[in-house]
Specification:
The protein is mainly alpha-helical and 187 residues long. The chain is built from seven helices and two strands; from the N terminus they run ααααββααα.
């Protein structure tokens, strides 16, 4: 005759079911928390870019030039006589993009190009009187809200952000390569 009790076995099974059910519940909770965090992060990106777009629109209304043109103009005013390469470096732009900004500012007569006396191959950039007036009418910060915000972060915060954005950029680059075999915009 078997003397195995049925109740304790049943309890063990119920306990195991609770553990399985508990870990499934914990996983579901973790997934819900992660999904909420992803959406909050996405919302933060939308806020950043929406605010930057609004500031650019405000600059265009007040100064009749784009935010990047205003930033370039302010950099040239800050360092009269800089070269296009200097401007590209200051704004973290490709030299061609900086050259296009200089062309637009020159057409608007906000800056002028002057050949270097010692080296005629080098062109120096100078803000005109109209360019100075434009700076006085334009809303700040001249660099735009995003650059201004980055400048207000302490070095440790900026370093963490840079590292995290590097990871995000790498994930996006890998996804873009997998999907289309292309690079991200701006690369």
């Amino acid at each position: 005759m078997s003397t195995q009790p049925t109740r304790p076995t049943s309890r063990r099974r119920t306990g195991a079911k609770r553990k399985i059910s508990g870990s499934a519940s914990a996983r579901a909770s973790a997934q819900a928390s992660r999904a909420a965090l992803e959406l909050q992060t996405l919302q933060a990106f939308r806020l950043l870019f929406g605010t930057a777009r609004k500031h650019d629109a405000d600059v265009r209304r007040a100064a009749a030039i784009s935010g990047s043109q205003l930033w370039a103009l302010s950099e040239i005013a800050r360092s009269q006589g800089m070269s296009v390469n200097d401007l590209a470096e200051r704004m973290a732009l490709h030299q061609t993009t900086a050259s296009n900004l200089v062309n637009a500012l020159t057409e608007e007569k906000l800056i002028r190009r002057v050949r270097d006396v010692e080296d005629q191959r080098v062109v120096r950039l100078h803000v005109t009187t109209e360019g100075k007036r434009k700076l006085l009418r334009a809303p700040g910060p001249y660099t735009g809200l995003l650059v201004d915000a980055l400048r207000h972060l302490d070095t440790e915060e900026l370093s963490r952000l840079h590292k995290s954005l590097g990871v995000l950029t790498a994930v996006m680059r890998d996804a873009a390569l997998d999907a289309a075999g292309e690079t991200l915009m701006g690369e």
